[in-house]
Amino acid sequence: MKSRIAGVCVELSGVILLLAVGACVSVPSGCKRLDERPKNAGKLSSSPAATPVPGTADKKVVCTNLELTEIFPLDTLPNRTVTLILSSNKLTELKNHSFIGQIYLERLDMKNNLIGNIETDAFWGLSALKRL
Ligand SMILES: *[C@@H]1O[C@H](CO)[C@@H](O)[C@H](O)[C@H]1NC(C)=O
Ligand SMILES: *[C@@H]1O[C@H](CO)[C@@H](O)[C@H](O)[C@H]1NC(C)=O
């Protein structure tokens, strides 16, 4: 585990230098992280403990207009990221296994990119995907 995390930091160090960010960032700093609204928010809950346990809520990560040219290491996304918006960037290709391990991801938006090459196994591992 430790070595994998270190690897991510090394991989990102070029980006960090470019952005002059000192810390080892996980997701690009321009990304917004939001909690997804529970799908049953409209229903009245009789339980007083309706507040979700921190860290267990579904997450939405929005990375638009960041001029991203490739997908950052997605194992750094918050736990339970169900929505990932990568629209309006400059992604040019989707490599095999780009989304490996994203078992919670249900919605992936890559509109308005420059994608010209999608490798055969690019979406391998996206078991929960519903919308693309
Ligand atoms: C994500 O889940 C893993 C495994 O359940 C846990 O060890 C880790 O602390 C969690 N990370 C966050 C940011 O909640
Ligand atoms: C991607 O996966 C496909 C199918 O397994 C394989 O044919 C192709 O060579 C792979 N591409 C790369 C660049 O690894």
From TrEMBL:
Record GO cellular component, one term: plasma membrane
Keyword check for Signal: yes
Leader peptide range in chain numbering: 1-26
Taxonomy, superkingdom: Eukaryota
GO biological process: cell surface receptor signaling pathway
Record keywords: Receptor, Signal
Short name of one Pfam family: LRR_8
Similarity annotation: Belongs to the G-protein coupled receptor 2 family. Adhesion G-protein coupled receptor (ADGR) subfamily.
Record protein name field: LRRNT domain-containing protein
Organism of origin: Scyliorhinus torazame
